[in-house]
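Lab manual, section 2.4: Encoding a predicted structure.

Procedure: take the sequence of the chain (165 residues), apply the prediction step described in section 2.3, and record the output as structure tokens. A sample record is shown.
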Amino acid sequence: MRWRPVQRITGRHVLLGMLGFFGLVIAANGAFVFLALDSWTGLATDSPYERGIAYNKVLRDAEQQRALGWRGRVAFEAAAGDRVRLVADFVDRRGAPVEDLQVSATLRRPTQDGYDQSLSLTREAPGRYAALVDLPLPGQWDVRVEARSRTGSRFIVEDRQLWPK
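Recorded output:
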């Protein structure tokens, strides 16, 4: 077995090692800061403080909606070509279709800004309302459908839908 001479660690080696270590830490932190500032903000609403203060109204609206006794279901369905249909079904507490509604919807991409869209749904069958939708990206969409009756009753269905399924 052949012995090699031991290399001595000099002040220069220690300096270069420390500069390399701290340079790597600073570069990694800089990359994380850049990615954090360049990504989604995480804000789900433009005015979270005002929405928090109005929470009692949210509870009151939910109680009124429960008193109506309606049930709603929303879903994406395939249409001709690459098109997608948003379908909403509404029934009352007896299971009968709810008629004469004005139905609107808002679609929001939960992970990316800039793809939100609003649309009006038209009556397709008793208690069924639908509209063609252009979904620019596959994946999850937050769907909020609001139905208003001629008497002023309001019913909201919120759901997260996946397209394509």
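Check your result against the sample. The chain has a mean pLDDT of 91.
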